[in-house]
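Figure S7 source data.
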Amino acid sequence: MIESPKGVKDILPQDELYWDFFEEIVKKAAKDFEFSRIRTPIFEKTELFSRGVGKRTNLVLKEMYSFKTKGGDALTLRPEGTAAVMRSYIENGMKSQVQPVKLFYLGPFFRHERPQHLRQRQFHQVGFETIGLGPSVVDAELVQVAYAILTKMQLEGFEFQINSLGDSACRPAYLKKIQEYFKTHQRSLCGDCKKSISARPLNIFECAQEKCLHIARVAPKMIDELCEQCHTHFKELLEFLDELEIPYALNPFIVRGLDYYTRTVFEIWLATGEGKFSPSALGGGGRYDGLSVELGGGEIPASGFALGVERILSVLREKEVAITANGKTKKFIFLAQLGFLAKKRSLKLFSNLLKEGIPVVASFARDSLSAQLRIADKADTEYALILGEKELFDRSIILRNMKTGNQEILEMKNLIPELKNRLNI
Ligand code: HAM
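C-alpha cells for the predicted histidyl-adenosine monophosphate complex:
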C-alpha cells in the first residue's frame, strides 16, 4: 500500500467544517480591515527566498524543497509567503496604487522539518501584509487583525510576545556587542551556538539548551540599544496596544528565524497554565522594511504576520469550541422518513428547508428509522424531524431532541418558523 509522504496530512471531509469556519472568519476580518486577497504561485525562484529570507537562515539552509527543472531553473516550493507577496508587489507595480497596499493570503506552504505534533512538511498559513507605509500604527493594526481573528474563533489564553530588533542604524552595533559578550562565554555554549557567534548571534537567544539560555538571559538586549527612531516606533506601538487592550508581553528572546525583520517582531503564544506556554507558536510576524531592497524594489516599508492554520484548528478541537460555518452549523436538523409516501414528501420538504436556510441533512437511501437516527446521532445533530405515514395524514411532523430523546408533534404549517426560532436563524 502506498502511504502519504512523511509529514503531510489529508484534510478529510469531516475536517471541512473547521476549515470553512477558519476561512470565513479570516475573510470577514480581511473585509473589515480592508485587505485584498492575493494568490501567489506555489513555487518561486529559489533566489527569492535565499535573498529575501536570508541564505544563512535555517529555513533556507535546511528546510526548503528546492529542485532544478528540466530547463535548468532553480525553483523552490514556497516555505513562507512574505517574500513572494513583496515580489508580486514590486513586479506588478503596486507602488503606483494608493498606499499602503493591504494584502492577505491563505494556502499551503512547505518546509522540510522533522515532522512532529503541529509541525508538518506541508502546512497552511493565512498571512496579512501591509506594504508601502511605515508608521507604528500599521504594526498595531496588524496585531489588531490577528487579535480580532483569534478572539472571533473563541480562542482564549493566547498572548502576543513582542520585541524590537532595531534597524540598520542601531542593530549592527548591537550585534557586535553581543558577539563580544558571547565570545567571552563561548566555552559554556553548545556547539551550534559557538558557530552562531560570528554568523548569527541572535540565534543563541532561541537555542533549546538551558546552558545557552542561561548565558543569553543576561546578555545585552536589543531593546535597550534601540536608536531614537526605533525606540519611538516601539513605544508608540505599545501605547496603541495598551489602548486596544490587547494582551502582550515584552519578550527580548523573540528574534524570529528570518533575516528580513526590522524593528517590530512578535509571536503569538498559547498559555498552557502555570505561566507556561505551548512550544508551538500559533503565529508570528513583524516589520520588514529592508526586504524590498534585497529584492531590487528600492525602499518600501512593510509589515505583516502569518497564522498557522493547522495549529489553530488543533487548539479549537482540543478546546471543543462550538463552530459554525457557511450556513452550516453543528445544530443540524436531520430529516428522517418512514415509508415510501413519506420518503417522497421528505425529498420536497428537504429542499424547502434548505431554501429557507435551515441546516438540514438526511439519508434518503435508508429505510429503517433506527438506522437513520443512528446517522443523525453520529452527525451530532440537535434535532431530528421524523415524517411517517401517520404524520403525513395528520399534516404534522415529529420533532425529536437528539440529546434528551424528547419528542413533540408540530403542525406542518408551523414547521419552518418553529425551526428558525429554535435555531436562531
Ligand atoms: P513563521 O513564524 O515562520 O513566519 O510562520 C508563521 C506560522 O506558521 C507559525 O507561527 C506556525 O503557526 C506556522 N508554521 C510554521 N511552520 C510550520 C510547520 N512546519 N507546521 C505547521 N505550522 C507551521 C512566517 O512564515 C512569516 N512569513 C510571517 C510573516 C508575515 N512575517 C511578516 N509577514
